[in-house]
């Protein structure tokens, strides 16, 4: 039986930004409290935060959003205006919720292993919520998509290569044991996104982020139901 594609509603998209933003904000806060980093733009934000002087410290989610700003032009060229607007909204949600988490929770990490795995899973699930609803999470992801379209580079391999560079940069300033836990966090985040972002695993999509032909066809199939589409 074929799976019929189901368009998301506006409320579902907005809720995905709220839930996904909260998960990412919590994951960043846990890693920051543990003194760890991870892959992707989240890892870059945490790494930059480690280099900043104490009087210039920002909540990790706010720093995450600020570092995403230069990539918006690339997002516009590679993915279009609607994807870019959603990405701006997602970054704003992450920044706002990160500030709220910083004012609400005082985190103390006693077990770096659980912190690394748990935060990686939170970041992975937050990324999943964003991507499933047509929203970009970080500039690194935009770069991988752009390189894939322009040069034919494999997105997974490009992302892995960038993550290795981020972790190598972390090794220059962090104890090796912290780099090891950070690698575990990046691995757990990659495992979550790898498992549930595979093509064909999900029937929902956000209208206005796909071409009109696919949207019309998907709407027809959703009205017929999966029985008629099989």
TrEMBL record:
Domain of life: Bacteria
Keyword Lipoprotein: no
This protein's UniProt keywords: Cell membrane, Membrane, Transmembrane, Transmembrane helix
CC terms in the record's Gene Ontology section: plasma membrane
The name this protein goes by in its record: Membrane protein
Transmembrane domains' residue ranges: 14-37, 57-76, 83-103, 115-148, 160-181
A matching Pfam family: YitT_membrane
Subcellular location: Cell membrane
Membrane topology: Multi-pass membrane protein
Listed InterPro entries: UPF0750_membrane (IPR051461), YitT (IPR003740)
Coiled-coil ranges per UniProt: none
Keyword Disulfide bond set for record: no
């Amino acid at each position: 039986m074929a799976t019929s594609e189901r368009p998301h509603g506006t409320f579902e998209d907005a809720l995905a930004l709220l839930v996904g933003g909260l998960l990412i904000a919590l994951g960043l806060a846990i890693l920051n409290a543990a003194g760890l980093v991870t892959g992707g733009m989240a890892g870059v934000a945490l790494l930059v935060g480690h280099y900043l002087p104490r009087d210039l410290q920002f909540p990790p989610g706010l720093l995450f959003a600020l570092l995403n700003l230069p990539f918006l032009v690339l997002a516009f060229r590679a993915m279009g205006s609607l994807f870019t607007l959603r990405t701006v909204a997602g970054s704003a949600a992450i920044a706002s919720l990160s500030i709220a988490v910083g004012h609400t929770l005082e985190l103390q990490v006693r077990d770096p292993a659980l912190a690394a795995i748990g935060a990686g899973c939170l970041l992975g699930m937050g990324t999943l919520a964003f991507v499933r609803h047509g929203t970009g999470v970080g500039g690194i992801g935009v770069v991988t998509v752009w390189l894939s379209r322009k040069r034919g580079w494999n997105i997974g391999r490009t992302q892995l290569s960038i993550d290795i560079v981020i972790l190598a940069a972390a090794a220059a300033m962090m104890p090796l044991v912290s780099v090891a836990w950070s690698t575990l966090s990046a691995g757990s985040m990659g495992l979550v996104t790898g498992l549930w972002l595979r093509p064909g695993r999900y029937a929902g999509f956000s209208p206005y982020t796909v071409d009109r032909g696919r949207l019309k066809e998907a709407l027809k199939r959703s009205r017929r139901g999966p029985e008629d589409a099989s």
